[in-house]
Design a protein that fits this description.
CATH superfamily of the largest domain: Lrp/AsnC effector binding domain/regulation of amino acid metabolism (RAM) domain
Distance between the termini: 7 Å
Strand content: 15-25%
Shape: elongated
Oligomer: single chain
CATH class of the largest domain: Alpha Beta
Largest sheet: 4 strands, antiparallel
Structural class: alpha+beta
Number of domains: 2
Strand order of the largest sheet: 2-3-1-4
CATH topology of the largest domain: Alpha-Beta Plaits
């Protein structure tokens, strides 16, 4: 399926990235198009795979989970990667996990209440069969979390045809 994203599509994406719950009628008013146009264009972008669902931003600090750490995981065998990932999925405080090349086999992000809670989570991770050791980096502050900059760069570089 070949899809061309024009400036209206790009503006729709811009608004939805900022707030995925923005009503189509509000987007239509901002862009001076009909709500039906917005609906059709969003459906087209969903069908082509450009838009994959919608997400909600949670302020975990307000829920008491302000501690963020990144855990580099070393495995005894790379063949245990899937096994370890399945075990990591069972730890709700592991919010992101990537299979990586380089220093670590897996790189995780965890959220915890405080340092004691983070230590407990890290010990749980360390206890998973197949993990040789872990390396922890504590996040002091999330300084950049901008989903729009890359999208704007991509749109300025090409016509974004599929």
């Amino acid at each position: 399926m070949k899809v061309h994203l024009d400036s209206i599509d790009q503006q729709i994406l811009d608004i939805l990235i900022e707030n995925a719950r923005t009503p189509f009628t509000e987007i239509a008013k901002k862009l001076n198009v009909s709500a039906g146009t917005v609906h059709v264009r969003v459906k087209k972008m969903e069908a082509s795979g450009i838009i994959k669902g919608a997400s909600l931003s949670i302020d975990y600090n307000k829920l008491g989970y302000s501690f963020i750490a990144y855990i580099g995981v070393y495995l005894d065998k790379t063949s245990k990667t899937r096994f370890v990932l399945e075990r990591l999925k069972n730890i709700p405080f592991v919010t992101v996990a990537h299979i990586t090349t380089g220093k670590y086999n897996i790189f995780c992000k965890i959220r915890a209440k405080d340092t004691q809670h983070a230590k407990d989570v890290i010990f749980k991770i360390d206890d998973i069969d197949g993990i040789v050791r872990t390396e922890t980096m504590i996040s002091l502050e999330e300084s950049i979390n901008d989903k729009k900059r890359l999208m704007h760069y991509i749109f300025s570089e090409s016509s974004f045809d599929f």
